[in-house]
Design goal:
This protein is α/β, with parallel strands linked by helices. It has one domain: Alpha-Beta Barrel (TIM Barrel). It is built from 10 helices and 8 strands. An 8-stranded parallel β-barrel has the order 1-2-3-4-5-6-7-8, surrounded by 6 helices. α6 packs across α7. It binds cytidine-5'-monophosphate. Cytidine-5'-monophosphate binds next to β8 and α9.
């Protein structure tokens, strides 16, 4: 089966804003990510529309709640027929285990976790009482995610190499923060080119603005795929 590495982040406020771009893209070029904003606005109907068009969807809702609630939410998300969903590793071992039990290993829907939000720096970490550097916390939470049997984590491309070595080749690494060597970085700080990210061990690349704001998004996807071939 064709397994495109690009996941285009549909960071749009409504289905009306997102669909013109989707119309230009093709499922053999990329997958699609729907996050909290678009899902809250457009709901399961949009997911159905995207999957009906043949796209595999990463539903990026980052569940974080008591184990029972997260398990039920994961089931409801998987029932939408999405390819990937995620939870917060900070929800802890019981929550992660409950999520895994709801979406057993080998299900059609992959279950991954967010470790530490990349927006958090040392002062945020100290504020909430966590110990260690961001790098140490990311590794600890990724290891916990792996121990609980989840399929992988979202991580910075700059962390991918280390996590790949620590957690093995089967553990799925999904990396945002992808930019072209000659492009603008927007608000992303820890960035990498698509090829560098894959060489560092990323399986999938979440890419937003470099594709969504491009004049020709299909050609950008094709160029990226060519650099990964
Ligand atoms: O436009 P850009 O390529 O920066 O979009 C990156 C996407 O990845 C956005 O949807 C953003 O919310 C998401 N993301 C991220 N960093 C994380 C987790 C998710 O940029 N640590």
């Amino acid at each position: 089966m064709h397994d495109p590495r690009i996941i285009v982040a549909l960071d749009f406020p409504s289905a009306e804003d997102a669909l013109p771009l989707v119309k230009k893209l093709q499922p053999d070029l990329c997958r699609l990510k729907v996050g909290k904003e678009l899902f809250t606005a457009a709901g399961p109907q949009l997911i159905e529309k995207l999957t009906h068009q043949g796209f595999e969807v990463f539903l990026d809702l980052k569940f974080h709640d008591i184990p029972n609630t997260v398990a039920s939410a994961c089931k409801a998300a998987a029932n939408l027929g999405v390819w990937m969903i995620n939870v917060h590793a900070l929800g802890g071992r019981k929550m992660l285990t409950a999520a895994r039990a709801a979406i057993p290993h080998g299900s059609a829907t992959k279950l991954i976790a967010v470790t530490l939000l990349t927006s958090m720096d040392q002062s945020d970490i100290t504020d909430i009482g966590l110990q260690g550097s961001p790098e140490q916390i990311v590794e600890r939470l990724a290891r916990l995610t792996s121990d609980c049997g989840l399929d992988g984590v979202v991580c910075s491309p700059l962390e991918a190499n280390h996590l790949r070595q620590q957690l093995g080749s089967q553990f799925c690494l999904v990396t945002p923060g992808i930019r072209f060597a000659d492009g603008q970085s927007d608000d992303q700080k820890r960035i990498s080119t698509p090829r560098q990210a894959i060489l560092s061990g990323a399986h999938y690349l979440v890419i937003g603005r470099p594709i969504t704001q491009a004049i020709n998004p299909v050609s950008v996807c094709q160029q990226i795929n060519a650099t990964l071939a």
